Amino acid sequence: MLKHYRFFISGRVQGVFYRKSVKESAQKHGFSGYVKNLTDGRVEAGVSLEEHRMGEFVEILQTGSIASEVTQIDSEEIHETHEGLFEIRY
């Protein structure tokens, strides 16, 4: 059964190709959702996944890009369904 989550990622995650890296890794692993910059310097990500794959997705968020440095990841379960490709939202 799919569950739907929103994540808020803090640290050095803007201006370091973080969104591009997350998008590419998430697509490669077959996740549906999005990633976008927030005005407060954090990045938001949304995903629909089977609960047993949560650790795999969090690892993608934690890894980010070579130049990124994730200091905190917060998550919440939501009711928004994500289908199709993983995308960058603007």
Question: Can you tell me about this structure?
Answer:
The protein has 2 helices and 5 strands; from the N terminus they run E-H-E-E-H-E-E. The protein has one domain: 2-Layer Sandwich (Alpha-Beta Plaits). The longest helix has 11 residues, at 18-28. The chain has helices spanning 18-28, 54-63, and strands at 2-12, 32-37, 43-50, 69-77, 86-88.
Describe the SSE topology.
Blueprint: E1 2-12, H1 18-28, E2 32-37, E3 43-50, H2 54-63, E4 69-77, E5 86-88
Parallel strand pairs: 2-5
Antiparallel strand pairs: 1-3, 1-4, 2-3
Which word captures the global form?
globular
Approximately what portion of the residues adopt beta-strand conformation? Answer: 35-45%
Distance between the amino and carboxyl termini = 29 Å
Q: How many structurally independent domains?
A: 1
Q: Level of helix content?
A: 10-25%
Read across the widest sheet, the strand sequence of neighbours is 4-1-3-2-5
Give the biggest beta sheet. Answer: 5 strands, mixed
CATH architecture, by name, is 2-Layer Sandwich
